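Tip: read the tokens left to right.
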């Protein structure tokens, strides 16, 4: 990834062809490789992350998109047609990878991205502009203080770690991903509880929530919250490692 970013040599060519580099290029590579020894994520070293079909600007201070989060996009794509017109709320938009991708794939969707982080909002806006995506509005606001409004689709990869779990994370995550993107500073359930308790005020009657879920002790509590609500139902989707990754929540007919 570093060689591709600095020398503009894609992986396929790197494995099949020989390249000669000059001293300046060598020095740039050495600086980047040394940063790896400080536990700095490669995505922050090169300043970008590949997500779905695009490259997203991911500076330090912004949560690095994970490949497994692409399943959120797959679920939305499988459930919607190219010409559908729907309103979408991306909660905790971060780099904008989810909201911008949805807006890029569905030109008729009106997407809103929300994040409490000023840097995340700035980065999301930059990525939307870079990818020429115009049907998304990104706002800086605390989701829990947002005036309730009903959407056709709500999508989110919320901070779901218990605050006590953060200290046990790998250094590349603990030192570089923002705490607000990792944990709700409580038990990890804050966003899920709010989603389920306020679903009637957030979602239209035929609307759908797509929410990433952790592989942890709170997963069963999330499922119990849904099962205890007689108005809603859910479907769980597994990622490529066959781990429960996305929960789709909707009103019973």
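Filled-in amino acids:
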């Amino acid at each position: 990834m570093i060689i591709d970013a600095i020398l503009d040599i894609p992986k396929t060519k790197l494995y099949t062809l020989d390249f000669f580099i000059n001293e300046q290029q060598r020095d740039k590579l050495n600086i980047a490789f040394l940063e790896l020894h400080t536990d700095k994520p490669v995505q922050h070293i090169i300043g970008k992350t590949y997500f779905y079909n695009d490259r997203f600007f991911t500076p330090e201070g912004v949560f690095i998109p994970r490949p497994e989060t692409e399943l959120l996009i797959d679920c939305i794509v499988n459930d919607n047609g190219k010409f559908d017109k729907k309103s979408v709320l991306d909660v905790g938009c971060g780099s904008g990878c989810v909201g911008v991708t949805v807006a890029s794939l569905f030109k008729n969707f009106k997407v809103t991205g929300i994040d409490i982080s000023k840097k995340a909002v700035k980065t999301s806006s930059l990525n939307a502009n870079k990818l020429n995506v115009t049907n998304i509005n990104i706002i800086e606001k605390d989701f829990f203080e947002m005036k309730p409004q009903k959407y056709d689709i709500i999508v989110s990869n919320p901070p779901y770690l218990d605050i006590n779990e953060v200290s046990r994370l790998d250094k590349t995550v603990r030192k570089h991903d923002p705490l607000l993107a990792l944990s709700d500073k409580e038990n990890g359930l804050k966003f899920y509880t709010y989603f389920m308790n306020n679903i009637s005020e957030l979602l239209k009657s035929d609307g759908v929530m797509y929410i990433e879920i952790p592989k942890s002790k709170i997963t069963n509590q999330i499922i119990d919250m849904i099962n205890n609500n007689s108005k809603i139902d859910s479907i769980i989707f597994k990622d490529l490692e066959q781990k429960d990754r996305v929960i789709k929540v909707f009103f019973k007919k």
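The chain has a mean pLDDT of 91. The chain has twelve helices and nine strands.
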